[in-house]
Here is the input.
Amino acid sequence: MTANSLTITQARDALRRGDLSAVDLTMACLVAMDAGDGLNAFVHKTPEIALQQARAADARIAGGDVPSMCGIPLGIKDLFCTRGVPAQAGSNILRGFRPEYDSTVTARLFAAGAVMLGKLNMDEFAMGSSTETSCYGPAVNPWKVDSRQLSPGGSSGGSAAAVAADLCLAATGTDTGGSIRQPAAFTGIVGIKPTYGRVSRWGIVAYASSLDQAGPMTKTVRDAAIMLQAMAGHDPKDSTSADLPVPDFEAALTGDIRSRRIGIPREYRMDGMPDEIEALWVRGTAMLRDAGAEIVDISLPHTKYALPAYYVIAPAEASSNLARYDGVRYGHRAALAPGDGITEMYEKTRAEGFGSEVQRRVMIGTYVLSAGFYDAYYNRARRVRTLIKRDFETVFAEGIDAILTPATPSSAFGLGEIGSADPVQMYLNDVFTVTVNLAGLPGIAVPVGLDRQGLPLGLQLIGRPWAEGDLLNHAYVLERAAGFVAKAEKWW
Amino acid sequence: MSIDIDTARKVARLARIRVTEADLPALAGQLSGILGFMVQLNEVDVSGVAPMTSVTPMRLPRRPDVVTDGGMAAAVLANAPDAREGFFAVPKVVE
Here is the structure.
């Protein structure tokens, strides 16, 4: 076993004991990263920055100052701005953009001593569930069962592939409708979307601001607790950042969930759901019951309206957020013909710079916000969102501590298999995760088993707002009971 | 509710995305398909329900109205496709 396959927890302990140096650990990851080019996970590599940060981490460790993330090599989703390093959000419209500043999340991770190996592939502007809308071409799932190349999911597919293939110890992700949890489930890793407002959005390229939230993608639940600790906290530069204390998430992992009440929502039992997903859900329920939790059947009656509401609200916000890409301040500007004015510059720049899925969502958003349709679509969707949140508030008020659901409606699908003719087919991937974003709640995907083909399947736990510690503890119990240790066999 | 070619042309223009006439029928079809998916929302009784404005009940933070940042024109312009003499440059807007 080489150092790149360590967990954050194992690496932290080895660094503290002096059994491993941050430079050696980083070198092992850089070698794995270069050997992993077939996965198309890393799209901008930063080995010089990584080694400089690793040397600084070693100096810090020698001085006895060892925060948990000190010396830990990470991959950073391309959506995060890091000073002087390309940040394209997977889009041609941001080609050549090098931010002059660091996002709050990466600044916090670097202040804690973390090491950046490079930027990770993703769907363009985080719009997608397969990484196939990326301007860099799709990332590839390290899991493989036949001749097909599988999608690692999306939008944080590069992050998921890199962590699952041990190219880095962990990665940042972002989740607007399931973009951390679905790729985590497709690759057999852990991914948590925190409560809306727990992690600052400042310096992260915006998709749908009322839904976007960053979180860690890791090999274990304990690693997720450690990394979320370093990412979370109040930030005056994000007006929706919560001014609340951040509890010690790792200390919350007691493994004791006796007498906790776990809700099983009947509306998540979808028509046409594969038997294997259903069976996995039943097994996960039994694991929590065996750990002493009380299992309660619950109802979240507006669940089926979450996807259509999301596909009004998210494009509406995106059409506004993406108005800034106009060829004036950063990124691509189209070559202009003689006589072209500023409108032609905008229209040509955006037609050349945005891929087809982003163009579709910007236009859908423009339509649902346009005069005459604003009430019928946008306001109606926001009213439905209120009802979806109320569903969760009702069951939490009745004493439910956490909710167990499938994470995805299937295991990983092959590249090019879904949605090429009908974009809505791809949207259905978010069916179990999108409610959580609409309600602003924390949700975590935990790998629980393999399907008949040998591909990972995950379950999702949904927690009360601001109760990430409690949620992580439930996930920790599920992780231990499931004992998922399978890894993708190296073919790349 | 379906989107015809004229509506697709209008939406593309409002979104400032150039779409050729040849591509408009396919675009209209795709947008109609997505809107068809949203029609389910009409089944929900939303009478008396307020549209959500903030997922977490919170008062937006306030601060004194003073300058807190600035004086970095070079950094602001560093990524511009065309910057001249301390300004962003664009095609002529006023005749």
